[in-house]
Amino acid sequence: MLYAIADSHGFLGSLKVALTRIRADGGADAPVVFLGDYVDRGPDSRGVIDLLIGGLDKGRPWTCLMGNHDRMFARFLDDATHHDDHILSHKSWLSTSLGGARTLESYGIADAADRPVAEVHAEARDKVPAAHRAFLGALRTYHETDEHIFVHAGIRPGVPMAEQDEDDLFWIRDPFLFDPRDHGKLVVHGHTAVRWPEAHANRINLDGGAGFGKPLTPAVWDGTDWFLLTENGREPFWSASDFAAA
Description:
About 30% of the residues lie in helices and about 15% in strands. The radius of gyration is 18 Å and the shape is globular.
């Protein structure tokens, strides 16, 4: 079995619920792929990263991928003047809509959106633990198995994984979300928040909007099919037979 959890966005309580469901279904040492976006918007980004570091330190078989928000956080710590061109609004990572100020608040850095950036940057460099910076630096861009490609946002259709642009792996929506082609393997992703996890013939989107206060619903692959782990247990989610006639 293999489990996956999409964007938790600083909602530590929701992440703990998701992990509790996984533990009940597959045990404490169940393999889990985390699809990125551990920070921003929610109240305890620091706690989320602490939890993930703690699990890895205990030898849990966890694979942690990087999301676009995690990369924005890491880049801010390196260079507060950097702006990601994929933020089309040109808003700062510290803005309310992107959530960086709330991430820094979880590290004890107050009013980050309203203070001089250089001052906030210096305080962040002092208060964000080295272990957290190392965690961000070690996050993987994607994870591939015999049957699946796990990635934060998606892939550029028709491009081999070794040739994918890193920015696409963190940010892509169009054309990936609307491309019906077989990608060779089922793509498991988050990034694009929907009302409830979605299953398609060539991809599954597990981002059910937890970053906006909705439930964080993990999923499990049993070797044949995917199931969501809800409060009522396993719920059928994706099966190749569902799309055989399509």
